[in-house]
Design goal:
Elements lengths: L10 H4 L1 H4 L15 E2 L4 E2 L11 H4 L9 H17 L1
Antiparallel strand pairs: 1-2
The protein binds iron/sulfur cluster (2 copies).
Length: 84
């Protein structure tokens, strides 16, 4: 089965408005308050919200697309975030 591999670029945690992610995560600058910009890592990774968990979020898309299509869509948005 196709898997999602994150290269830990940190862009999805640095550009929350672009993701329209939970506004409660924004530190006021567009970055997530749980993001460590020194390491590009999430400081609450094991307790991160479901919206940050690719596998958990598939349930919201399962009626719309296959898991493989969903993974491709995630890769597409990662690429777009790296361009902004
Ligand atoms: S934008 Fe994609 S590759 Fe970069 S940290 Fe986020 S999930 Fe990982
Ligand atoms: S909770 Fe973690 S994974 Fe989610 S946006 Fe914040 S730093 Fe990124």
């Amino acid at each position: 089965m196709k898997r999602f591999f994150c290269d830990k670029c940190g862009k999805c945690c640095e550009k929350l408005p672009a993701l329209v992610i939970d506004p409660g995560l924004d530190d006021g600058t567009g970055k997530c308050k749980f993001y460590d910009s020194q390491t590009n890592l999430c400081t609450i990774y094991d307790q991160r919200p479901d919206i940050c968990n690719v596998d958990k979020m598939y349930s919201a898309f399962a009626s719309l697309m296959s898991y493989e299509e969903y993974i491709d869509m995630n890769y597409y948005f990662c690429t777009k975030l790296k361009e902004v």
